[in-house]
C-alpha cells in the first residue's frame, strides 16, 4: 500500500512538471504568433490544387454506350467574381453584444440599434467612451452626437481606417433607444461605405467598445470554474494517511 501511495505521488509530480513545461511552450508559441494577424484573413494550407490542369473533354469510342447524363454531379463553370485565395477575408461578421441588464441590440443595414433602461445611463457615458478612443465630438445635444473623423486601429488590419459616426437617442417611456451608424469610412484613398462587411465591422466594433465601458462590474468577474470530480477524488485520496504494511520474516 505504501508503494502504491509513493508511486501515485511520483506520477502526479511528473504530470505537474510536464504540464508546466507544456504551458510555458504554449505561451511562447502564442506570444510569437501574437503579432501575425494574417491567420484572420487568409486560409493556410497546401496550394498545389491551384496548379491542377483543367479537365479535358471525355472521348467516347464508337460502339461504347454511356449512362444517361444527370445533373447530380454537374460542375458549374460560371465565372466567380470576388476575392479568391489569399485575398479572401475569412473573418466572421461582428455582432453587437449588449452588456447591461434588460437590454438588447441588433445590427441592420449599417447601423446598430440598442435599447436599455434609462437607469443604466448609457447615453451619458458615451462621450467619455469616445474620448478614451480619441474620437472627438463635432456636435452634441441631449439626443444626438456627431463625431469628427478619427483613425480606428484594429489588431487584425494592417492599415487603420478613418471613420466618423452619428449617434442618436430616442426616449421610449423608461427606456432609451440608441442608434449608431457610420457617416464616413475610408482606408487610405478607398471609400469603404459601399462595403457592407467593412461597415458592419467598424460600427459594431464601436458599439461593443462602448458596451465594454458601461458594463457593470458583475460582467467583468469571471465565474468560478467548476472543479473536476477526478481532481477532487485525487485530492481526497492524497489526504488519507499512508498505511504501513509489516513484513513477516
Task: Report on the architecture of this protein.
With about 250 residues, this protein is of the alpha+beta class. Among the domains are: about 30 residues; about 120 residues, Alpha-D-Glucose-1,6-Bisphosphate, Chain A, domain 4, CATH 3.30.530. Helix content is about 30%, strand content about 20%. Strands 1, 2, 3, 4, 5, 6, 7 and 8 form an 8-stranded antiparallel sheet that branches. A hairpin with a 2-residue loop joins strand 3 and strand 4. The protein is extended and about 85 Å long. The N terminus and C terminus are likely disordered.
Name of the CATH class of the domain at 96-219? Alpha Beta
Amino- and carboxy-terminal Cα gap: 18 Å
Largest sheet: 8 strands, antiparallel
Order of helices and strands: HEEHEEEEEEHHH
Task: Please tell me how large the radius of gyration is.
Answer: 30 Å
InterPro entries: NlpB/DapX
Protein name: Outer membrane protein assembly factor BamC
Pfam family, one: Lipoprotein_18
Region (Disordered): 217-249
Amino acid at each position: 500500500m505504501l508503494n502504491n501511495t509513493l508511486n501515485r505521488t511520483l506520477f502526479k509530480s511528473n504530470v505537474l512538471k510536464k504540464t508546466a513545461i507544456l504551458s510555458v511552450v504554449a505561451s511562447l508559441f502564442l506570444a510569437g504568433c501574437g503579432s501575425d494577424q494574417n491567420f484572420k484573413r487568409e486560409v493556410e494550407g497546401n496550394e498545389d490544387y491551384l496548379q491542377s490542369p483543367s479537365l479535358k473533354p471525355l472521348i467516347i469510342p464508337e460502339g461504347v454506350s454511356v449512362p444517361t447524363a444527370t445533373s447530380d454531379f454537374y460542375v458549374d463553370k460560371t465565372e466567380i467574381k470576388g476575392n479568391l485565395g489569399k485575398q479572401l477575408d475569412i473573418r466572421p461578421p461582428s455582432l453587437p453584444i449588449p452588456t447591461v441588464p434588460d437590454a438588447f441590440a441588433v445590427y441592420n443595414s449599417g447601423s446598430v440599434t440598442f435599447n436599455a433602461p434609462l437607469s443604466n445611463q448609457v447615453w451619458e457615458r458615451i462621450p467619455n467612451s469616445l474620448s478614451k478612443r480619441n474620437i472627438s465630438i463635432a456636435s452634441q445635444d441631449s439626443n444626438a452626437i456627431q463625431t469628427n473623423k478619427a483613425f480606428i486601429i484594429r489588431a487584425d488590419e494592417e492599415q487603420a481606417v478613418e471613420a466618423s459616426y452619428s449617434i442618436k437617442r430616442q426616449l421610449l417611456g423608461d427606456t432609451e433607444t440608441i442608434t449608431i451608424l457610420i457617416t464616413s469610412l475610408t482606408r487610405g484613398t478607398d471609400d469603404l461605405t459601399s462595403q457592407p462587411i467593412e461597415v458592419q465591422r467598424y460600427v459594431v466594433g464601436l458599439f461593443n467598445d462602448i458596451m465594454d465601458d458601461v458594463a457593470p462590474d458583475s460582467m467583468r468577474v469571471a465565474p468560478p470554474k467548476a472543479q473536476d470530480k477526478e481532481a477532487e477524488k485525487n485530492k481526497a485520496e492524497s489526504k488519507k494517511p499512508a498505511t504501513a504494511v509489516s513484513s513477516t520474516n
